[in-house]
Amino acid sequence: MSIAEITANQNRVQDHAEELKFRLQAMQAAQLADGTPDRALRLDRLGRIARMVREYQDRIIAAIDADFSGRAREETLLAEVFTSLSAVRHAKVNLARWMRPRRRSMDLTFRPATARLLPQPLGVAGIIAPWNYPLLMALSPLVGAVAAGNRAIIKPSEYTPRTSDLLAEMIADKFGVDEITVVRGGPDIGAAFAALPFDHLLYTGSTNVGRKVMAAAALNLTPVTLELGGKSPTIIGPDANMDAAVSSIIKGKLFNAGQTCIAPDYVLLPEGQLDAFVEKAGAVATKFYPNLDDNPDYSAIINRGQYDRLQNLLSDAETQGAKVIRMDGGAGRKLPLTLVLNTTEAMAIRREEIFGPLLPVIPYADLGDAIAHVNCGDRPLALYIYDKNKGVIDRVLGETISGGAVVNDCLLHGGVEALPFGGVGASGTGQYHGQDGFDTFSHLKPVMYQSRLNAMWILNPPYGAKAKGLINLLLKR
After folding, report:
1. Would the pLDDT of 14 be above 80?
2. Is 410 labeled as catalytic in the residue annotation?
């Protein structure tokens, strides 16, 4: 690229940055001018989101399918349409309760004063959505922001251009430009977006990009919620129902071809059960997805870059001595379940988030070894434990830290609106879904209500005998 082309590109990015800043300022001004939206307006906006999803459902399915060059219709209905509508439904049912002032107990020292938390909207939220679930990851945080009374600007992924264009069309159809809007563009636009002085910024994506988003937001002291990924472990305990565990793990791993932030990243299982796992996993994969090449139920890898990345992980592992077991089938960018055995920490597949249908399987001698393996790495976004023994389950849950966890299943907690969703450490910071999403996009203003009858006058200077006596009494409490 010539100097002239570089300069021209920099000028375009600067122009876009100025346009984004102007759009944000206009939206913030509208929020201030209109004041805090009442419950009726919030319900109306939530209802518009639901109607939008229902009216555009067929086009959503087609756009996502085209962006993936093959995404199972049922997966889009379950993971994008249903979950988005479920988030709206949950918010509408609970909104009145969420909006109410929340009582806080008052220490005896300050009584008869009382205390409340008053939920208030922050203003304008920025939402950066990823490509793997391009509708859900835009609308799920939007529901929390709208329920809390905010306006929002959404930046969808450039990897799903058809879905991003459709999202922009859908939003423009149902909302004014000063309510909710969509900004499209590549990494340069994304960087400019993250640097805007939002009242709150939520990013979903990789840990590496999350660091850059947090650094950009820090310049404006913008509060951030980072929904990242990582290596979510699956532990098969010594008393697990192996058939049920394998069926659940393979189903979760192959949903959206493993392109899920909470997909099982690797399996830890007792020594002596490896051969049984391999045999059962192959049988389950074949049962779920026969004739993989032209199977409409199995999704493709999003693009060639991601496909090549997954192939490089396999090549690196094989070169260093791993045993790779590829299931039958796979054409174009449809990659079959691939088990990877005899892995070591030197292999990239053990260090990097996989985000595809590759599954390392690691035997352990003792449950403590499995727990130690999990704790030696970054804290994961999700953890799955399969076992019939409550003591084993409680030990794993108690001795590990993860963003969320599921017992004897996987993935499903991500669709439960009553549970907060978020990571810890390298897998993210902050939470949303349900009331936790409402609270994330709210300022819970603490307010103390002083009673007309109170004893605070005793502490007025000059400090006489009564004041000194009261202070001594307080110190003895």
Report:
1. no
2. no
